[in-house]
Amino acid sequence: MLRRMSTEAPSIALKLKVVLGKIQVASEKRPEALQYATPLLVAVSKTKGLDMVMEAYDAGQRHFGENYVQELDEKGHDIELLDHCEDIKWHFIGRLQRNKVAKLLGVPNLYMIETVDNERLAKAVNDTWGKLNKPGPIKCMAQVNSSGEESKSGCTPDSAVELVRYIKENCPHLDLAGLMTIGSYDHDPKSGINPDFETLVKVREDVCKALSIPTEKLDLSMGMSGDYEQAIEMGSTIVRIGSTIFGSRNTVPSQATLEEAAEQAKGQDKDLDKSTQEEAVKSQTSQLKKLSVD
Ligand SMILES: *Cc1c(COP(=O)(O)O)cnc(C)c1O
Predict the structure, then answer these.
(1) pTM of the shown model
(2) Separation of 224 CA from ligand 1 center, angstroms?
(3) Among the atoms of ligand 1, which is closest to the Cα of residue 114?
(4) Virtual torsion, Cα 16, 17, 19, 23, nearest 10 deg
(5) Cβ count within 10 A of residue 31
(6) CA within 13 Å, CB half, 72
(7) pLDDT tens for the 294 residues of the chain, in order
(8) What does the alpha-carbon distance between residue 88 and residue 199 come to, in Å, rounded to a whole number?
C-alpha cells in the first residue's frame, strides 16, 4: 500500500508531550528522597516568535523562559499575547544588569528571576519591586557558576550561602525559590554524571544546613535540552528546555538583542581596558550570531 510520508515537522504540542513524558520517566528514576516534587518544565522561547509561544500555551504549557530583557519586554507587552495567554508565567533566565531591572520588573506576568547572582543586584531588584507596591514578593533564584567558566554568570559555589543569607535577611520583597545553574556546555551526558549538577546539589546542602532551610523548600533549576533527564535524576526540580521544543535557534536576533548582548559583555568586563572590552563585545556578538544560525 502506498503511504504518503508526512513532510510536516512534529507540532510543538507533540514535542511538548514527548518532553513531559521523558520528564515523568526520569522523575520515577530518582531516589525516593527526591520524589517529593514533579519537575517544572520551563519552555525557553528566546528568539522564537509569539506564534510559537501561543501554540505551546494552547497545548497547556504555562511557564516560559526568556534571556534578554528587551525581547521579554516586547513579548510580555504584546496585546495579542496578553489577551490570549492570561495565565502565562515568564521566567527571566539571562544575565541581568542593574540598569535593566526596572524594565524587567515592569513586564506583565513576570513570575521568577532565575539569575540573581550578587548582592547589589538582589538589592536593586528588591528595592524596585518594593516601589511597585505589588501584592507579594517576586520569586527569584540565586544563580551559581558551577563550572567556574569565566563566560558564565553566577556566584561561586563558596559564596552561595552568603548570597542566600543576604537575600533572606535583607530583601523582604524577594521570595528565594532556589538555586540555578547553567553548567558547562561541553559535558556529554553519556560520559557520566555532570559535575556541575553535583556541585549545585552540594551547594543546596550547604545552604540548607547553614540557614536551616528544609531541602524541599529550595528548588534546583538545572538541565536543558541535552541533559535534562540526567539533571532530574540528580534532583533538578526545574528544567529549562528550548531547542527540543521549539527547534534550534534559527531566527536572526533583533538589533536590540544584539546591542543588549554587547552591553552585557561590556558590563562583564568593566575592569578590563578598552581594547579588551571591544574584543569581548565582538566575540559575544559573533557568538550570538552563530547561535542564531545553527
Ligand atoms: C537557551 C537557554 C536554555 C535552553 O537551552 P536548550 O539547549 O535550547 O534547551 C536554558 N537555560 C538558559 C539559561 C538558556 O539561555
Answers:
(1) 0.86
(2) 6
(3) 13
(4) 130
(5) 9
(6) 31
(7) 455 555 567 899 999 999 999 999 999 999 888 888 899 999 999 999 999 999 999 999 999 999 999 999 999 999 999 999 999 999 999 999 999 999 999 999 999 999 999 999 999 999 999 999 999 999 999 999 998 888 889 999 999 999 999 999 999 999 999 999 998 877 777 788 889 999 999 999 999 999 999 999 999 999 999 999 999 999 999 999 999 999 986 555 666 677 777 777 766 544 444 555 555 555 555 555 544 433
(8) 31
CA 172, 92, 114, 41 torsion: positive or negative?
positive
CA of 8 to the centre of ligand 1 (A): 25
The rounded distance, in Å, linking the Cα atoms of 145 and 196 is 9
Cell 528544609 locates to 214
Mutate to test the pocket of ligand 1, among 15, 47, 67, 257 (most ligand atoms within 8 A of CB): 67
Does the C-beta of 225 come closer than 6 Å to ligand 1? yes
| Distance set, CA 131 to CA 127, 135, 202 (Å) | 6, 11, 35
Residue 221 has which C-alpha cell?
A: 533549576
Confirm or reject: Cβ of 238 under 6 Å from ligand 1: no
Which cell numbers hold the place of 228? Answer: 535534562
- Is the beta carbon of 182 within 6 A of some atom in ligand 1? yes
Nearest protein Cα to ligand 1, atom 6 = 242
Q: Is the CB of 240 under 6 A from ligand 1?
A: yes
